[in-house]
């Protein structure tokens, strides 16, 4: 992991609340917060990402003298609070689903159990880190799903909303399903394969397209992939590429292929494929780019486009159709210093915004015959499921909708990653995360992953959690809850 000082990457109100908690004697209480996302019309599932950077942030929290001087200059905090911050460290526990896990609305991606001030303080940065990478990993998964096994490259750096969005977006894209990135810094930092050829400006800087192609081929004879749409794809681009390929072959090299970046990609790819085949290059690939997303890729596939490799930039790195995951960080339980446990709930007139209380865990239920995931069950932490007994789950709102599993197995999704402020698990390599993410996607039926009108995956509450939630709702609405 690479350490960055993100201590002041927070909203001011986290610090003002911490100061208030101390003034009111609540800093010795322990709190449980859940980070999750709510259901929306675009993202019905997500691919968890960003955990490694979240851990890096938590373990690196240190207020420097420069930080304290800045906070002092705001005129909001007394010296007692600034002295407290000088020695501030995260000493709590963190539970999370592994990166690459498919997750669904209301399920905790990450849970923090820590002294109240600590648990409160980390909210903003955790949301920033996990929201962004999970959003981009999810978009990448949808793009990769549309490509149906074809290779997808991420090259949106120039269109990303800042350097961090480009670098960490590239990491998330690979977790979601991309094979490589154009971002060299991301390649160095995370060991991601880097890919790229040349731009239109390369072609325009030579007297002719043919000379530009020839010069590039001489530089990279074993990695020659030529951009053929600078002037006229079919009349000059592909014919000139073939001429250069002939020269390469005579010298004992085989070309990689061509790239199309504009025009009617279905039509052009079919014509280009025929031209390459007729010239004796059936193995030469056709790469396509140019404002692609999962829907355009799916459309091109349905039209029989002869495209082997997809380069996706702007609409992937910015998640153009949904630029924010909408993840939230909500208090779910409080352990006062004097003892006891108090489950906490946030109410709303919008039922989708009512939170699930208590310290929780999530089980994923698999059908033993198919091996496929069938439902998730959110439970009170410590609840056990006896796989020898039938398991009935019910819709948390429309409770008459029930499903009973008999031949099944369950898997707890969350694992403890930090205990007492210290890392207690081995962080997987990015390659291992990507392999796990692919296995995760394979464990779900296509009906849950399809782009249009996906089937809604069951995420239910255990009877115990359901009862706690409804009791709290009743108490608060009757005025009997503090």
Q: Examine the secondary-structure arrangement and name the CATH architecture of the largest domain.
A: Alpha-Beta Barrel
**What is the topology, as strand order, of the major beta sheet?**
13-12-1-5-3-19-20
Domain count: 2
Largest sheet data: 7 strands, antiparallel
- Let me know the average pLDDT: 96
CATH topology type of the largest domain: nicotinate phosphoribosyltransferase
User: Structural class, from helix and strand content?
Assistant: alpha/beta
Number of helices: 17
CATH superfamily of the largest domain: nicotinate phosphoribosyltransferase
| Unreliable stretches | none
Helices and strands in order:
Layout: H1 12-23, E1 30-37, E2 46-47, H2 51-59, H3 65-73, H4 79-86, E3 93-96, E4 102-103, E5 110-115, H5 116-121, H6 123-147, E6 151-154, H7 163-176, E7 180-181, H8 184-190, H9 200-204, H10 209-219, E8 225-227, H11 233-250, E9 257-260, H12 265-278, E10 285-288, H13 294-302, E11 309-312, H14 314-317, E12 327-335, E13 342-343, E14 360-367, E15 373-380, E16 391-394, E17 402-405, E18 408-412, E19 415-419, E20 422-423, H15 430-442, H16 446-449, E21 458-461, H17 463-477
Parallel strand pairs: 6-7, 6-11, 8-9, 9-10, 10-11, 15-21
Antiparallel strand pairs: 1-5, 1-12, 2-4, 3-5, 3-19, 12-13, 14-15, 14-18, 16-17, 19-20
Helix pairs in contact: 2-6, 3-4, 6-7, 6-13, 7-15, 10-11, 11-12
